[in-house]
Amino acid sequence: MRLNALTKDDTKITVEIDQTPNNCPYCHRVIISKLISSFAAGDDLRIVFRCPNDECEEIFIGMYTPLYSNTYSLSGISAGNFSAKKYSITITEISPVFIEIYNQAEFAEQNNLIHISGVGYRKALEFLIKDYLILLKPEDEEQIKKKPLGNCIKESVDNKNLKTVAERATWLGNDEAHYIRRWVDKDITDLKRLIDLSVHWIEMEIETKKYLEGMP
């Protein structure tokens, strides 16, 4: 997308951007952002957008960093209202701390604190898996608490689908805490998707077990 931007001395320059924000940070709906104005800020670009939804119409700023000459890539947007992720009663009963940590990581991500949000998602995953295992194997509680997450998944998770996705979520979560990334083609979006899949398989297992026990 090509547009004009103002420099600090009010000179117009033509620039190109790779995309506009597709989610409003206030109403959290999928949108086609309405461009209001754009400004060159040193080497970077700042664009003022308005949410097109009649119930919202909030103003927010897209932050762009240079790719090459006069071409910019969206790197973040200004903070809006925090939208906490909701979970089922099943997950809430299994691990309320998982939900708390996950939403703290989500808050960090929504405020563009991307270097710490990934570590938070990794910690949330650990609480989810360990609380799930403690529910199933209360006699092993102390051992589960002390054991590294990877070992817990490898040695104690019997659900094949959960084991598969939780292992990979752990790999990506560890990448968020290390200097060198092993999985360079994956990012926080993939980590969150794998956590969602882990939640799904835990829910399916626990809810199925409840029905089987209630309807033998």
Describe the SSE topology.
Blueprint: E1 2-6, E2 12-17, E3 34-41, E4 44-50, E5 59-68, E6 71-77, H1 89-94, H2 96-110, H3 114-136, H4 141-146, H5 149-156, H6 160-175, H7 188-214
Parallel strand pairs: 2-6
Antiparallel strand pairs: 1-2, 3-4, 4-5, 5-6
Shape: elongated
Calculate the terminal CA-CA distance, rounded to whole Å.
Answer: 61 Å
Return the average pLDDT rounded to an integer.
Answer: 94
Q: Which structural class do you get from the secondary structure elements?
A: alpha+beta
**Count of extended strands:** 6
Provide structural commentary.
This protein has 216 residues and is α+β, with helices and mostly antiparallel strands. The chain is built from seven helices and six strands. The protein has a six-stranded mixed beta sheet, with no helix packed on it. Helix 3 packs parallel to helix 7 and helix 5 runs antiparallel to helix 6.
How would you describe this structure in keywords?
47% helix, 7 helices, 216 residues, 20% strand, 2 domains, alpha+beta
